[in-house]
UniProtKB/TrEMBL annotation:
Protein name according to UniProt: Ribonucleoside-diphosphate reductase
Species this protein is from: Weissella muntiaci
PROSITE patterns from the UniProt entry: RIBORED_LARGE
Family: Belongs to the ribonucleoside diphosphate reductase large chain family.
Gene name for this UniProt entry: nrdE
Pfam families: Ribonuc_red_lgC, Ribonuc_red_lgN, RNR_N
Length: 723
């Protein structure tokens, strides 16, 4: 049998899976999902998988037919590869849900060129990933295989999909660029967006340095076109360029909330926007300094400043001026053109747009920089708002060459599966393997098509290890999302991630005799970074969480003191280590809830192309865990903020935090709604964004709304950056 001859009308697994959504005797038929999984493996995977007599025959076929990279395989003695496969077989991996198996074979497993036969099972994809990331180190390959097959560690989609393949895209998940205020830079930025979208994930581009529409160019008034036409060019570039047809190109434009084109920027996403300005697929994000919140609180006017004039007065691009510190000076400076709006009008416009489209993402840029341990300034973010790294501007000449090459951002991502990592026999060893795997991707990424990105990658060796399955862990351990025990666990888990990734990066610096560029000017080198861990006791406070961590080596203040001394003496290799990206299809394969967010439904319904609806029960769903699985749409979003803010304390970059709102809010959910309309209003979103800001959350990803007619809308989930 081949896949083209598979009669989907005769298979049983879709019907069995659909029965999960049909209660029987007032109970969810969870057993039907297990039956659907068994049927899928028997009716679809088994008959349509190409068989090989020996492992050697499999590897020879995959290399000779240009599926697997011989250079990866030839780093190892084949006897070791056989031992690796024996180890994988002993683990006896099985998928835990129909959705997990379906997603893997639909999206990740290699098929023959004609698409007729599966060439990889899950263990094969894990094996080639482990061989690739280990770079010839047998011990590390075995450790990584162990981490991935036990689903404690999951590389991001581009890494997991492409590792070890001959014909592949790049492994890096996302990029961040900035344009400066001249045509050469804009042209170079568009070219870079094309190139990066072709090879990798999503691209974030900051346009705040560009002069506003109607600004003067070379003494000619009203000559500048502003940021909107550049956004249109970028949108077309992303639509044209994709990762060898495997993924849609995707990008986000960021703009400072103090840019004069901010209202026109928002207007590009309005449903009634003129087609000349409307952007359909380009995402929108804003960078918001503390000053905006101050002006909004006072119900004051706010001034929007011409980036060209600001750069001329301060001698640095607009992005690099501290608006909160310089605001009054800029207002008083007659050489800086400005226009006036009401701060609350802008605030309400943000909320209106979030209600209508889910955009814009919000980056609390002063919060980001106050916590940033690296010398320099973070000015922007990526497509999913969790990557926050320093950049330096470039100067491009008329030949599109760099007179001054700055640094831009690339980041490769991976995620811990919280439920499974808490079962690891050795937390430190697991994290150490993950840091090495992510660092291997950074060290082996070919990014010379955009030299500023390559330079940033070579200097910083940045990685982004995150987490998924938090709500599943809460439910399995009978904690309500956002309660005292949940926050206690979140604090302890991410402190552990921080400590052990720091320790692993310190060990890399010792082994390689190298730290990231700029380490000496960081708060790691001064030791200041460690002060908060030495000034108080961070041990878990509740009995349940203490018991959960009893089997792990939870770092003491003495451990932190020893790590501080070692880091100050030897450095760390990775300038950035942690970031919580959204998790897409890969969370189904891992039997995990998405990133840190609460579930939407206990039985999730997904519309699959050409197939119809597939149902996915929440991980570990049972009569016992049912009460702990509240829908995100029924949870006070302040509880979500509390969870993310608790994790943020230990994360050097950011997190993709989503707000889930009903168009008609549940009675009693928010006390400020008492006596008012129960419909969601701009005021509700204003209050929640301010709450997140006051809690120290660095970014709000987007707003997803559940309407009264049971439809969800908001930002389309991005597969480019998601894990």
């Amino acid at each position: 049998m081949a896949l083209s001859t598979l009669d989907t009308n005769k298979v049983t697994y879709f019907d069995l899976n659909n029965q999960v959504n049909i209660p029987l005797n007032n109970s969810i038929q969870l057993q039907k999902d297990a039956e659907a999984l068994t049927a899928f493996m028997a009716e679809n995977v088994g008959p349509n998988t190409k068989r090989f007599a020996t492992l050697r025959e499999r590897f020879d076929y995959m290399v000779e037919n240009d599926f697997w990279d011989a250079n990866v395989i030839n780093q190892y003695d084949f006897g070791f590869i056989e031992r690796l496969y024996d180890f994988l077989a002993e683990t006896n991996f099985t998928f835990k849900s129909f959705m997990a198996a379906y997603k893997f074979y639909a999206q990740y497993a290699l098929k023959t060129n004609d698409g007729e036969w599966y060439l990889e099972g899950y263990a094969d994809r894990v094996a080639i990933n482990a061989l690739f990331y280990a770079g010839g180190d047998e011990e590390l390959a075995l450790q990584l295989a162990d981490e991935m097959l036990h689903q404690r560690y999951q590389p991001a989609t581009p890494s997991f999909l492409n590792a070890g393949r001959t014909r592949r895209g790049e492994l890096v998940s996302c990029f961040i660029l900035q344009a400066t205020d001249d045509m050469n830079s804009i042209g170079r930025t568009i070219n870079s967006a094309l190139q990066l979208s072709k090879i990798g994930g999503g691209v974030g581009i900051n346009l705040s340095n560009l002069r506003e529409a109607g600004s003067t160019i070379k003494g000619i008034a009203n000559a500048a076109s502003g940021v909107v036409p550049v956004m249109k060019l970028l949108e077309d570039s992303f639509s044209y360029s994709n990762q060898m047809g495997q993924r849609n190109g995707a990008g986000v434009a960021y703009l400072s909330i103090f840019h004069p084109d901010i209202m026109e920027f928002f207007a590009t996403k309005k449903e009634n926007a003129d087609e000349k300005i409307r952007v359909k697929t380009l995402s929108l994000g804003i960078t918001v300094p503390d000053k905006f919140y101050e002006l909004s609180k006072l119900n004051a006017d706010m001034f929007l400043f011409s980036p060209y004039d600001v750069e001329r007065e301060y001698g640095t691009p607009f992005n690099y001026v501290d608006i909160t510190a310089e605001y009054d000076n800029m207002v008083a400076n007659q050489n800086i053109r400005k226009k006036k709006v009401r701060a609350r009008d802008v605030e309400n416009e943000i909320s209106k747009l979030q209600q209508e489209s889910g955009y814009p993402y919000v980056i609390n840029i002063d919060t980001v920089n106050a916590a940033n341990p690296i010398a320099g300034k973070v000015i922007s973010s990526n497509l999913c708002s969790e990557i926050l790294q320093v950049q330096r501007p470039s100067l491009v000449n008329n030949r599109q060459e760099y007179d001054v090459m700055g640094t831009d951002v690339s980041c490769n991502l991976g995620s811990t599966n919280i439920v499974n990592l808490m079962e690891t026999p050795d937390f430190e060893q697991s994290i150490n393997a993950m840091v090495k795997a992510l660092t291997f991707v950074s060290n082996n990424s070919q990014l010379d098509i955009v030299p500023s990105v390559q330079k940033g990658n070579n200097e910083l060796h940045a990685i982004g290890l995150g987490a998924m399955g938090l709500h599943a862990f809460f439910a399995k351990n009978k904690m309500m999302y956002g309660d005292e025990e949940a926050l206690d666990f979140t604090n302890a888990y991410f402190l552990m991630l921080n400590y052990y990734t720091l320790k692993a990066s310190n060990q890399l610096a010792i082994e390689r005799g190298e730290s990231f560029v700029g380490f000496k000017d960081s708060s790691y080198a001064s030791g200041q970074y460690f002060d908060k861990y030495l000034s108080q006791d961070w041990q878990p406070k509740t009995a349940k969480v203490q018991a959960l961590f009893a089997r792990h080596n939870f770092p003491s203040q003495e451990d932190w003191a020893a790590l501080k001394a070692s880091v100050m003496e030897h450095g760390i290799y990775n300038a950035y280590r942690l970031a919580v990206a959204p998790t897409g299809s890969i969370s189904y394969i891992n039997d995990a809830t998405a990133s840190l967010q609460p579930i939407v439904n206990r039985i999730e319904e997904r519309q699959e192309k050409k197939i119809g609806k597939i149902y996915y029960p929440a991980p570990y769903l049972s009569n016992e865990t049912l009460p702990y699985y509240e829908s995100a749409y029924d949870i006070d979003m302040r509880r979500v903020v509390d969870v993310y803010a608790t994790a943020q304390e230990h994360i050097d970059q950011g997190m993709a935090m989503t707000f889930f709102m009903r168009s008609t809010l549940p009675e009693g959910l928010y006390e400020w709604k008492n006596g008012r309309t129960n419909k969601m209003t701009t005021r509700d979103l204003n209050i929640l964004r301010l709450y997140a800001y006051n809690k120290g959350v660095k970014s709000v990803y987007y707003v997803r709304t559940y309407t009264d007619d049971m439809e969800e809308f908001g930002v389309n989930e991005c597969e480019s950056c998601s894990i």
